[in-house]
């Protein structure tokens, strides 16, 4: 049987792998990677109309709807659980979904967590990730945790007006490109689908190649793009005041501000080689990602 025949056979066989968040940025990249490898995962989405045209198997499920999740995961053994959209109820939604996955017979869950996940983490949403990890450990399913740092893409997005503004002090963060998180997730899933079990129970820290201060990040953005960019440091009080006009709920503003205070604390300065170990190539730096963008 040729490689093409094997790929065709794989794409027409009953799916045993599923991806949540398949219309999001990371989930969509993972789905494309697996498809290119001859795999055809089931795509779990909230809106079927947004699923890619090439998808052969699409199921609609919301994290907070246990019954729909059980139906969507019927027959699935291997699951990529991309963390749900940020919300005050995200942890409860995760717990409902994990219970549904276990009930549906899922054997192994690969979960996109956060670097240094802890119930005492400075970044408030990191605490949710820790509790989600705990729920997976207690579920009886095998698991792999991909603890990614803040996205390098985020640095580029928040600096679009020429400034990175927040209470990050002189702290450093080893941000990671979304594309590297997706590539690492796809590599783990390909291994597990091939019967390689060394990822079971593993936790991988997904970071970029260097830890940068916000001032250094602003300087790199300026140098690569030619767009003058600066870091404007705020006090904690100034950070809350400057974000008050959005009218966002308190939990969300706490998350925004603690993005920067977590950097200031030094909790996110870890530089890991796990992206390279999983993907076989070095992770993208901020300069690499900037140069890869058409506008640059």
* SS summary, helix count: 12
- Written as H for each helix and E for each strand, in order along the chain, the element string is HEHEEHEHEHEHEEHEEHEHHHH
Strand content: 5-15%
Classification by helices and strands: alpha/beta
Strand order of the largest sheet: 3-2-1-4-5-6-9
CATH class of the domain at 17-149 and 177-207 and 271-279: Alpha Beta
The total strand number stands at: 11
Q: Please, could you describe this protein's structure?
A:
This is SDR family oxidoreductase. Pfam families: NAD_binding_10. Residues 21-191 form the NAD(P)-binding domain. The protein is α/β, with parallel strands linked by helices. The protein has a domain at 17-149 and 177-207 and 271-279: NAD(P)-binding Rossmann-like Domain (Rossmann fold). It is built from 12 helices and 11 strands. The protein has a 7-stranded parallel beta sheet, with helices on both faces. A two-stranded parallel sheet has the order 7-11. The longest helix has 16 residues, at 178-193. The N and C termini lie far apart (45 Å).
Keywords:
296 residues, alpha/beta, Rossmann fold, 7-stranded parallel beta sheet, two-stranded parallel sheet, 44% helix, NmrA-type_oxidoreductase, SDR family oxidoreductase, NAD(P)-bd_dom
Overview in brief:
This protein has helices at 3-12, 25-36, 66-72, 90-104, 124-138, 152-158, 178-193, 214-225, 236-243, 250-265, 274-279, 286-292; strands at 17-19, 42-45, 58-60, 78-81, 108-114, 142-148, 163-166, 172-173, 203-206, 212-213, 230-233. The protein has 296 residues and is of the alpha/beta class. Helix 2 crosses helix 7, helix 4 runs parallel beside helix 5 and helix 8 packs parallel to helix 12.
């Amino acid at each position: 049987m040729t490689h093409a025949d094997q790929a065709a056979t794989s794409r027409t066989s009953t799916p045993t792998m599923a991806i949540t968040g398949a219309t999001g940025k990371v989930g969509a990249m993972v789905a494309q990677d697996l498809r290119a490898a001859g795999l055809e995962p089931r795509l779990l989405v909230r809106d079927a109309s947004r699923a890619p045209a090439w998808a052969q198997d699409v199921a609609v499920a919301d994290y907070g709807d246990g019954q729909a999740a059980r139906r969507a995961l019927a027959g699935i053994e291997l699951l990529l659980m991309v963390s749900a959209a940020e919300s005050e109820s995200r942890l409860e939604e995760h717990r409902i979904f994990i219970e549904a996955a276990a009930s549906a017979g899922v054997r192994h869950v690969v979960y996109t967590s956060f670097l240094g996940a802890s119930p005492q983490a400075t970044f408030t949403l990191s605490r949710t990730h820790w509790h989600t990890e705990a729920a997976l450990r207690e579920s009886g399913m095998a698991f792999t945790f991909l603890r990614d740092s803040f996205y390098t893409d985020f640095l580029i997005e928040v600096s679009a007006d020429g400034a990175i503004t927040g209470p990050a002090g002189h702290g450093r963060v080893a941000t990671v490109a979304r594309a590297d998180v997706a590539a690492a997730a796809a590599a783990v899933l390909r291994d597990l689908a091939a019967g390689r079990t060394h990822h079971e129970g593993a936790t991988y820290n997904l970071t970029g190649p260097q830890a940068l201060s916000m001032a250094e990040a602003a300087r790199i953005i300026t140098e690569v793009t030619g767009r003058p960019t600066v870091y404007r440091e705020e006090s904690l009080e100034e950070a809350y005041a400057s974000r008050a006009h959005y009218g966002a709920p308190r939990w969300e503003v706490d998350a925004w501000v603690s993005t920067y205070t977590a950097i200031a604390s030094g909790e996110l300065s870890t530089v890991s080689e796990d992206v390279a170990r999983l993907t076989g190539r070095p992770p993208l730096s901020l300069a690499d990602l900037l140069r890869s963008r058409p506008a640059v």
